[in-house]
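=== Structure Prediction Worksheet ===
Name of assembly: unnamed complex
Input type: mixed (protein and possibly other molecules)
Chain count: two
Listed entries:
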Amino acid sequence: MNIVIRHGLPLPVAGALPDGEFVPTRVPKMGLAGADYSGIRPEILVEAGQAVASGTPLFRDRKRPEIVVTSPSSGRIEKIEIGPQRRLSLLTIIPEGEDAVRFDLAAAGTSAGLRSLMQQAGLWPALRTRPFDRIPAPDAEPAAVFVTAIDTRPLAPDPAVVMGGMEDSFARGVGALRLLTQGQVYVCQGDGVDLVEPQDRVSVVRFTGFHPAGLPGTHIARLHPATSSAPVWHINYQDVAALGQLLARGTVDFSRRISLAGPGTQQPLLLRVPIGADLHALSRPQLTPGPKRILSGAILDGREAQFLSRYHLQASVVARIEPRARNWLIAALGRASSPAAFVPTAAVDRALGPDMPAVPLLRALSIGDADRAAQLGCLQLGEDDLALATYATGGETDFGARLRAVLDMLEAA
Amino acid sequence: MRGVWHRDTVSWIIVSAMLPVVVAASLDLGLATMQRFGVALAVISFWQGVFLFTRAQPLSPIALITAFAVAVLASGTTEMWQIVLAASFGTVMGEQIFGGWGRNVVNAGVVTLAFLYFAFPEVLHTGTGPLVAVAAGFGALLLLVMGVLSWRIAVAATMGLVLATFALGQDPAAPFLEGSLVFGLVFLIGDPVASASTRMGRWAYGALAGALVAIFGWADAGIDAPQAVVFATLLASLFAPLLDAAAVAVATRKWRGGHA
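=== Predicted Assembly ===
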């Protein structure tokens, strides 16, 4: 099936990624930020100084102990920072050695066995639900599973290139995902050869168009709209390949093939680094002169972070623009009554991938009207779906944060 | 990363689209236009300043557009004190009390002009010639390219105007030679804030506004008088939220029941 997304905007981002291999790169440190695992209240299972192998459980959810986050690499725990309300703020690991936990694959052929394997191996957090964009409950069953094997964010690595040599793992992973649902598994990919053979309950769907043609929100709204009673799950292509590899070898490969690019780098790089890689260390030799912001994620929807987030497949460097010092009176008047209202231009209409009334939805989000936003279709969306809307309204309001606030309200109701 | 469509950037785009009309209108209507523009701008800026200090609403270049719309469409022998009154009413009641441009329901220029026409009906206002119509056409092109003027509204309003003119037994080409009418079509009916904001809503809003211009023009004020387009915009803007609500109700049927 081919679907052309007519919405979306071309983004003025200069530069292109190089051809070639993803260079395996050692990092001096890895960090897991608690903020990445929204919806989890962690119970820490390790202590500072302890040696861990790749796959050793680091923390688990207090309420649902089956949901475990495991170490992305062999090493030693450097420090564990606990934030307000006993939440995990940051856990850092110094990599050393090559130890990896082997998992028992005997029961992986059944639905319950696969769930338990993914949960033990720390691959369960790779799945996220729509609505609400949370890690799914251990025993939940989705109406469909979406494999996102297309990335239209600026300067993102091309999944077709990344998958070169990993086709078997990917196909095995897709096949296994069928055990999690009674419904369809949709493999959403860009133009090009099929990444997997279509099989029973597996559909390959090609999406073309500008960003956000590659976002799961766009795919889900188009193919299988999510509802609270029939949620769907989505997972990115690199985690599917990791699942396939786990099923073949019994160990998890937590490395990511990422791009490190953006206007603040001398040249864009393709790297193979573990989840949580220290982006400051990776980008330091590459920076152009001047103050910089280092983002985990794309220029459009990334957030400033030292460590590569669980869900990001790229890192970006942009110039840090410090606000100019101005006369105090002019500065005070300029801050008046912000955020300024947005003007409904054609750019706003094109900013959302799903076919939903963009202007009424953005207005409902900006005043925090949860019921209205739900009626207009916000349950189909995640924070990344609204990055383009923030861009198309001049960056005055962070609509991703507004959506998260509205989703939290709807989830609690 | 942020795009160029910030509220203030958009208003500067509209101002630049208006520049050809400024030249054409000065040639057509003479120096009195600039005098009215100056007075209206001073009054609107004063009220923007008042709301800046009392309600923390930032100044907006939209004042230039409102003032110029008043200067062109109130072309009769309007006294300056009348403009002071009308512009005060228009900018305060039409825009500032809602929170400034971007949050208003009707265009401030339309409110100002409607006030002038109603309060001082003895003043005769004449339209402008084809030169202004051509200049407004160029402005419309820029607005369409930048996505500020919705092409759906532009097409629907033109079609509504032509069809209603035809239905009334008049020459469908005649309205497009009237400068004030084309100006109003582009800058008042096409105002992105006060018009409808959904796809179907825009088609309905444009068609309604175009048809109302024809009806008011041919049946009442005269197609060459600026009143037709101002009253048509006022009425259509008031219907815009209703049209949007209907369009949203149709478009969101598929998400209904999504939230348990």
